[in-house]
């Protein structure tokens, strides 16, 4: 298997439960390389685009609220890109099944996830499911220059009159 990239999100429940260090330690077992990392607030557009394959599901609006941190009063996620051999399979294995009650008890979701009474799967982390999805998601969450390796082709563009914030 060649090197591949995967997006990892530590979701708002993971941040609220102070699991960041723990999750990163578990993921370090994979010996994969972290090639991008940041804390990000999640706009409605970003959340809906991220989970667009689920937009017809009855739980979609709760899922969007969950990812945006509305259920945990933590309006942020930690987003990372892991890179290396078999990255998706290795990370998904450590994450465990989507449903935290079905996830192996030693997996991240099995250890720390829960299902709320309203049926939301609070499963602590997101891991891309396959190469194409990883590419779509990584391009959604990161700009090319936030990633320290060249994962996908880029082109040069000039941004005209864009206001940016600088240190005062
Ligand atoms: P995964 O995150 O394992 O790739 P997915 O892409 O099918 O799973 O679903 C994305 C998220 O949506 C998942 O992490 C939690 C939520 N979800 C999926 N199926 C659900 C269900 N039946 N009830 C409640 N939430 C669900
Ligand atoms: Mg998925």
Question: Describe the biggest sheet?
Answer: 4 strands, antiparallel
Number of strands: 6
Q: State the share of residues found in helices, binned by percent.
A: 25-40%
Fill in the CATH topology: Alpha-Beta Plaits
How many distinct helices?
A: 7
Kindly provide the name of the CATH class. Answer: Alpha Beta
- Largest sheet, order of strands side by side? 2-3-1-6
Bound molecules: 2'-deoxyadenosine-5'-diphosphate, magnesium ion
Number of domains: 1
Shape label: globular
The ordered H/E elements are: EHHEHHEHHEEEH
Give the structural class: alpha+beta
Mean pLDDT: 97
Ends distance: 48 Å
Structure notes:
This protein has 168 residues and is of the alpha+beta class. The protein has one domain: 2-Layer Sandwich (Alpha-Beta Plaits), CATH 3.30.70. The chain is 32% helix and 19% strand. The protein is built from 7 helices and 6 strands; from the N terminus they run βααβααβααβββα. The strands form 2 sheets. The protein has a 4-stranded antiparallel beta sheet with strand order 2-3-1-6, with helices on both faces. A two-stranded antiparallel sheet has the order 4-5. β4 and β5 (121-122) form a beta hairpin. The longest helix has 11 residues, at 131-141. It is globular. Bound molecules: 2'-deoxyadenosine-5'-diphosphate and magnesium ion. Residues 54, 59, 63, 98, 119-121, 123, 126, 129 line the site of 2'-deoxyadenosine-5'-diphosphate (DAT). 2'-deoxyadenosine-5'-diphosphate binds next to loops.
